[in-house]
Amino acid sequence: MGTAQLAAVPEPKYWHLRTVLLRAIDSEFATGQVIPNERELSARFGVARATLRQALDQLELEGRLVRRRGIGTLVAAPRVGVPVSRREEGEAWQPVDCVTAPAADKLAGALGVPAGELVHTVRRVRVEQGQTVATESLHVPDRSLEQVPEIRLSGAALTGEEQARAVLRRLERLTMDGESRAVELGVAEAEEAALLQRPPGTPVLVVTTQFAAGGRLAALAVSTYRADTCRLTFGETGLVEVRPAAPVRTAS
């Protein structure tokens, strides 16, 4: 079998500049320090403003720079270490609301229940160091909660957040057989981006977790973490299954 020579791909000008800028930032600036403005940087590196903006945009996407209106462009803080373990997460997740509705085909297939079966979808946000770093949709089939003493899940007296807490309390009483996780790179859709306070299309890390109880799937959580600020850690073993599975984000 012959060997094929890979053709050299010219490096885009903005990407080369991104590398040069990164070296300068690491050697000359501290976390939180404002870097020179575009005019000064363009003159220093002898590049067009359009090329410079592409490089700066790329570094912002990577979480190395952050723009502040009225201040300028600052060197971002290192990524926050975020434990991805139910035992370690504690009170980091804050309930937002809960929707109980018949499962559409895609969600029903992911949960292993018939289409149209009632599913409780709890939305939560995760806050670390005062910053929203993740959002989650936790899908719980109604049948999973049958063995748990009933808590009223609907009615005018309950807000969406109260319904969410009621579902979570019932879920916590289940004896879990285990859980499995998959991680993939994605982008934030409009609804997720709003909760994360980022523009749509922002790079994110999507963690899909399956919870088993009584020999069947009891719940499915799809957690979306900001890739520019988070460094995920995975409990005691550090083992992570990586696969290109398409996550189910909503019940609709």
Q: Which value, in Å, is the CA radius of gyration?
A: 22 Å
Question: How do the strands of the widest beta sheet line up side by side?
Answer: 4-5-6-9-8-7-11
Strand content bin = 25-35%
CATH topology of the largest domain: Chorismate lyase
The end-to-end distance, rounded to whole angstroms, is: 50 Å
Question: Share of helix among residues?
Answer: 25-40%
Furnish the topology, listing elements before pairings.
Elements: H1 13-28, H2 38-45, H3 49-61, E1 65-68, E2 72-75, E3 80-83, H4 86-89, E4 93-102, H5 105-111, E5 118-128, E6 131-141, H6 160-172, E7 178-187, H7 190-196, E8 203-213, E9 216-226, E10 230-233, E11 241-242
Characteristic key phrases:
252 residues, alpha+beta, Arc Repressor Mutant, subunit A, Chorismate lyase, seven-stranded mixed beta sheet, 7 helices
Explain this structure.
The chain has 252 residues and is α+β, with helices and mostly antiparallel strands. It folds into two domains: 13-75, Arc Repressor Mutant, subunit A; 80-242, Chorismate lyase, CATH 3.40.1410. 27% of the residues lie in helices and 33% in strands. It contains seven helices and eleven strands. The chain has helices spanning 13-28, 38-45, 49-61, 86-89, 105-111, 160-172, 190-196; strands at residues 65-68, 72-75, 80-83, 93-102, 118-128, 131-141, 178-187, 203-213, 216-226, 230-233, 241-242. The strands form three sheets. It has a seven-stranded mixed sheet with strand order 4-5-6-9-8-7-11. A hairpin with a 2-residue loop joins strand 8 (203-213) and strand 9 (216-226). Helix 1 (13-28) packs across helix 3 (49-61). The longest helix has 16 residues, at 13-28. The radius of gyration is 22 Å and the shape is elongated. The termini are far apart. 26% of the residues are buried.
